[in-house]
Design a protein that fits this description.
191 residues; mainly beta; four-stranded antiparallel β-sheet; 0% helix
């Protein structure tokens, strides 16, 4: 937390923690890290990105967003890419941005590759996708899904679960709190 504009030097407010991956078995292990930031990759999801131009790179899904600034052309940048569905975008600028080429590789497999005249690129990317419903309110919610598809969500399990209600549904597994009950009115006989 060094601040060149600081007016006073109070050693007690300095933070000497360095965040990074502290797992020595991980491919992105940082021997200088003193605080684990949860960024450790496995060998299966460790990837590299190389571009002939400087620019901004973003890989986004509903589960994770990877964003970084490519400051040196033709130098690999390493990142973790878990299985899933992503939207990829890259904006090149500076030297080399008129003809941009880049490659995104994971485990020796080329995930994305482009040679283009435009400095901006965007496309969808699927890496070992598992499609399904990730809405926790749905009947078929599955936390292991890597690619969310709302069209696959099923809400048929909702209904009235009270057997005394007029609209009781014995097949419901989740109560929708919309049970209907008959109202009885006693009419007294006149004599």
């Amino acid at each position: 937390n060094y601040d060149a504009n600081a007016q006073c030097d109070f050693d007690v407010i300095c933070t000497y923690d360095c965040y990074g991956c502290m797992d020595e078995a991980a491919p992105n292990y940082n021997p200088e890290a003193t605080m684990d930031d949860g960024s450790c990759c496995t060998n299966e999801n460790y990837a590299s990105f190389i571009s002939n131009a400087t620019g901004f790179f973003q890989l986004h899904s509903s589960f994770v967003t990877v964003y970084f600034h490519v400051t040196e052309p033709n130098v690999p940048y390493y990142l973790c890419i878990p299985d899933g569905c992503y939207f990829f975008s890259y904006y090149a600028f500076g030297e080399g941005s008129t003809l941009t080429s880049y490659t995104l590789t994971r485990n020796g497999e080329i995930l994305l590759e482009a040679n283009q005249i435009a400095p901006y690129s965007s496309q969808q990317l699927s890496v070992n996708p598992t499609y399904g419903c990730t809405d926790s309110e749905a009947c078929n919610y599955d936390s292991s899904i890597t690619c969310s598809d709302p069209n696959l969500c099923n809400y048929d399990c909702y209904g009235c679960m009270d057997p005394t209600a007029l609209n009781y549904n014995p097949e419901s597994t989740m109560d929708d709190n919309l049970c209907c009950y008959a109202e009885y009115t006693i009419i007294a006989e006149q004599s």
